[in-house]
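Open question from group meeting: does this chain pack into something compact, or does most of it stay loose? Before anyone orders reagents, we agreed to write out a predicted structure and look at it together. Recording both the input and the output here so the notebook holds the full record.
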Amino acid sequence: MEISIVIPAHNRHILLQETIASAKSALEGQQGEILVVDDGSTPILEQQLDKNSLENISIVYQANQGLIAAKNKGLSAAHGDYVLFLDSDDLIAKEKIGLQLSKQKEMLADVSYSNYGYFNNSTIRSSENSQPKKWKNPAEFYFYEQPSPHAPIYKTDYLKKALLENPLIPAERVYDSVGEVWMYYNLSIHPAKIVYIDQVLSYVRKHGEGQLTDSWERLSVAALHLAEAFLENCPKTKDTLPARLALCACAFHTWRGLPKQCPGDLEQRWLVLWNQCPDKKAVELKRLGGKNFQKLSKVFGPDFSARILKRLAKSTYQEISTISEAEVKQLLIRHK
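Structure tokens returned:
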């Protein structure tokens, strides 16, 4: 079998039916399968989906364990030589599978990815501005590009080795709100050939339903735990140096973006990750900030420049908080 489309899902069957129809259209003329991973839906998805949606798909069941576990379950069950993950509310273009697999096979690539657009419930679509980029290594792609979840198609063996056999960061539900980043961090230390197709071949639905979290604090803390686990577990070798440099650059960028007076040690722990950078001079300034920051850093260095700009920043935590300080401090306890 050529490709498996894995769709993790928890309830939300109306939108899922549109997603399944989109996947079926893209598989016309291809040797492929659609695996819907039912992550503890109530009632089970087989009882919620209409007859047309249930035709020619397989449903894999698990107790509610979250997004990462659902994707891994689907990956374990996949029979295809290639895998595409598709969120349960998004769509892919009819020509996506054919175009990306053709390019991937031609270039003997482990990963192909494409541009994407947005749509709302009126199916109005607008292309996302993007330009093909030349990444020096897979680490730069996974840390700096971080493609939309449904943009890449992966070789199945490549994914299984990195995510199932011996993941650098074992799967935990605490990472679910940054689940794609969990996958990208694990992939970042593995060699890969990556090709880009400069066409809009997938579409993100813009709506307010079923988001994993609408709290930036929860996202930041989950990302912090993930980043700390990465640096703790990552072997300190020449081969992993690009990934460690990229992680530290992302940590610096996150620290810069946090508001003043964050609860607990949220800011400090992001800064600690930057200070663990194996070679700060090897990190390009464009990875740390915009043009004005880069100009300032050339004179004063990135650390001092960032402190100046943070002091000048107007927003404080109290002005933009979405959860209480006590909740943030409780979230930060993990992994300390």
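Observations to bring back to the group:
The mean pLDDT is 93.
The chain has two domains: 3-205, 216-332.
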